[in-house]
Write a structure and sequence with these properties.
The chain starts with a strand and ends in a 27-residue tail after the last strand. A hairpin with a 2-residue loop joins strand 15 and strand 16. Helix 3 runs parallel beside helix 11. The chain has 2 domains: about 260 residues, FAD/NAD(P)-binding domain (3-Layer(bba) Sandwich), CATH 3.50.50.60; about 180 residues, Polyamine Oxidase, Chain A, domain 2. By secondary structure, the protein is of the alpha+beta class. This is FAD/NAD(P)-binding oxidoreductase family protein. Pfam families: NAD_binding_8. It comes from Ambrosia artemisiifolia (Common ragweed). InterPro entries: FAD/NAD-bd_sf.
C-alpha cells in the first residue's frame, strides 16, 4: 500500500474511459527536433532566443518573480520561452506522473492513471484537505460548503461514477427545494429539475474520500509547486527551491494566476498560450450563521434549500447548508448559509485574495447582508445580526470561456492540462476532463513517447463564451438543458 503524505503524518491511501481524439495537431517546426540520440530535452530555438538547459547541467534556479508581476510581463515571458522537446524514449518501464492540483479533475486523472497501471503523485495546496472548488469549512458545529454547492449528472460515464459514490455512502440526492428569488421576496421554486447531488458531510469529504482505496497514488499537501524544469529526460518539480521529485510527465490541474506563473517559464509555450486565453470571474463568498431561521420570503410556505437570486448585484446565490446537509426542515440552530455575489460585484470589489483588507471585508459583508435583506423582501435593517461571518474572495472563481475539449496535451513537452473550464464550469466537466487526460497520458506512455505527433491535442483550439449560472453550470437544470454531453466512451 502506497503511503500518502498529509502534513507530515503518514496515512495509507480507482475508473476507466477513453476519449476518441479525432484531431491530431502536428507542428513540423517542433517535430523536426526529434532526434533519438539525445537524452535531454531539446529546445526549439525558432521560438525564442533565450538560453536553455544543457545536457550535463542541473536544473538552473531562476530568479523568483515578485508577487506583483504585471500580467503583461508574465505574458511576454510566456510567449518568448522556448519549447521543451523530450527526444529520448521514456526513462523507465514504470513511469510516474506529477499532477499539480487536487481538485476533482486532478484526482480523477490520478485514478484513471492507476486504472491503467501508472503511478502518480498529486500535489495540492490545501491546508485542510483536498478538493479545490469542493471546499468545505468546519467551525465548531457549523459546516459551510463555501464553493461548489451541489452538482447534477448528464454524462453516462460520470453517472456510473456518481452511482459508485452513492453506493459507498459518499454522496446522496438532495431533496430540498431550490428556485429563483427575485428582489422583494418573490420566490419561484423549480417545479422539475434533474437529481441534485451533494456530498454527505460537505463537499470536501468527497474529495478526501476519492483516493481512499488507491495504492499507486501519493498525495503531498500542503505543497505549492513553484517551478517545473526539464533535465535528463524528466520533469523536476520544486517548491520554493525544495526538490519535490522527478517525473516522466506532468499534469496542470489548476488554473488562474498561479498556474500562469508556473507555465510562464516552463518551456511549454503552446500550453501556456492556451491557459492564458482562459478568462475567469471573481466572486465573493459570505459564510454566515444565524441563531434563528431566516424569514421566509413572500408567500413561501416552506424553507428553501437554495435560491438563485435575481436583480441584486451583491448576491447571486443563497444556500442553506444546515438544511441541505441534515436533510431536515427543522435543522439548526445555528443556521449556516453560504451567499455568493455576482461576478460584476466581485470585479468591482476585487483585492488580493491572499491579503484582504479589513475595511474591504467589512464593506463586502455589509453590502451582501443588505442584498440578502432585499432578496427576502425585508425592511432595511431588520435582518438579525449573524452570530458568525466570514468573507472570502474567489479571485479565479469560474471560467467564462472554453475551448470545448476534454483536455490539452503537449507530447513534446509531455505535459497536459485538465479542468472543468475545458468543457464548462461544473463538477461533471471537471470529472470528464480528468478522466480523459488520465486515459490519454496512459496511452501516450504505453506508446513509449515515440510518436508524439499522434498525441497532440487541444494546443490550438479556439475559445468561445461559456453560459451558465453565476455559480456554475448544472447540466439539465433550467437554462443549462442545452449543455452537450462530451463524446466519451469507456475504455480498458
Amino acid at each position: 500500500m502506497a503511503t500518502t503524505v498529509y502534513n507530515n503524518h503518514l496515512l495509507t491511501s480507482s475508473f476507466i474511459h477513453h476519449f476518441p481524439y479525432t484531431k491530431s495537431l502536428k507542428h513540423p517546426t517542433l517535430t523536426s527536433f526529434l532526434t533519438p540520440s539525445s537524452s535531454s530535452p531539446t529546445i526549439n530555438k525558432t521560438l525564442c532566443s533565450s538560453s536553455s538547459t544543457k545536457e550535463g547541467d542541473g536544473p538552473k534556479k531562476r530568479r523568483r518573480s515578485s508577487y506583483g508581476s504585471s500580467r503583461k510581463s508574465v505574458l511576454r515571458k510566456t510567449f518568448k520561452q522556448e519549447q521543451v522537446t523530450f527526444t529520448s524514449p521514456l526513462s523507465s518501464d514504470d513511469p510516474v506522473v506529477a499532477i499539480i492540483g487536487g481538485g476533482m479533475s486532478g484526482l480523477l486523472c490520478a485514478l484513471q492513471l492507476e486504472k491503467r497501471g501508472v503511478r502518480s503523485t498529486v500535489f495540492d495546496t490545501g491546508i485542510h484537505g483536498l478538493g479545490g472548488r469542493m471546499g468545505t469549512r468546519y467551525i465548531d458545529e457549523m459546516v459551510f460548503d463555501h464553493a461548489a454547492q451541489f452538482f447534477t449528472v448528464s454524462n453516462s460515464v460520470f453517472r456510473e461514477l456518481v452511482d459508485e459514490w452513492s453506493q459507498k455512502g459518499l454522496v446522496r440526492q438532495s431533496q430540498g427545494v431550490i428556485g429563483e428569488l427575485e428582489a422583494g421576496g418573490h420566490f419561484f421554486p423549480f417545479l422539475s429539475s434533474p437529481p441534485r447531488y451533494i456530498a454527505v458531510n460537505g463537499m470536501r469529504t468527497l474529495a478526501d474520500s476519492i483516493l481512499s482505496q488507491s495504492s499507486m497514488i501519493e498525495v503531498v499537501r500542503p505543497c505549492w509547486i513553484s517551478s517545473i524544469e526539464p533535465y535528463n529526460g524528466m520533469w523536476h518539480l520544486s517548491e520554493n527551491g525544495k526538490h519535490r521529485g522527478q517525473f516522466d510527465a506532468t499534469v496542470i490541474a489548476h488554473n488562474g494566476k498561479c498556474a500562469n506563473r508556473l507555465l510562464s517559464t516552463s518551456g511549454l509555450p503552446l500550453i501556456a498560450r492556451q491557459m492564458k486565453r482562459l478568462e475567469l470571474s471573481s466572486i465573493w463568498a459570505l459564510l454566515a450563521a444565524f441563531e434563528d431561521p431566516l424569514p421566509l420570503p413572500g408567500k413561501t410556505v416552506a424553507p428553501f434549500e437554495g435560491a438563485f437570486v435575481k436583480g441584486i448585484d451583491s448576491v447571486s446565490w443563497m444556500g442553506n447548508n444546515t438544511q441541505k446537509l441534515s436533510n431536515s426542515p427543522n435543522a439548526g440552530p445555528p443556521h449556516c448559509w453560504t451567499f455568493f455575489s455576482t461576478p460584476s460585484f466581485g470585479k468591482r470589489n476585487k483585492v488580493p485574495q491572499e491579503n484582504i483588507p479589513n475595511a474591504t471585508a467589512e464593506k463586502v459583508k455589509q453590502l451582501m447582508l443588505a442584498g440578502v435583506e432585499n432578496a427576502l423582501g425585508l425592511e432595511t435593517g431588520s435582518l438579525k445580526k449573524p452570530i458568525y461571518t466570514r468573507v472570502q474572495l474567489w479571485g479565479a472563481a469560474l471560467p467564462t470561456n472554453t475551448p470545448g475539449i476534454p483536455c490539452i496535451f503537449d507530447p513534446l513537452g509531455r505535459t497536459g492540462i485538465c479542468g472543468d473550464w475545458l468543457l464548462g464550469s461544473s463538477l461533471e466537466a471537471a470529472a470528464i476532463s480528468g478522466l480523459s487526460l488520465g486515459n490519454h497520458i496512459a496511452d501516450f506512455l504505453k506508446s513509449g513517447g515515440s510518436r508524439p505527433d499522434e498525441f497532440a491535442v487541444g494546443l490550438h483550439e479556439d475559445f468561445h463564451p461559456l453560459q451558465g449560472h453565476d455559480i456554475g453550470q448544472f447540466p439539465g437544470l433550467e437554462s443549462n438543458k442545452d449543455i452537450c454531453e462530451a463524446e466519451v466512451q469507456v475504455g480498458a
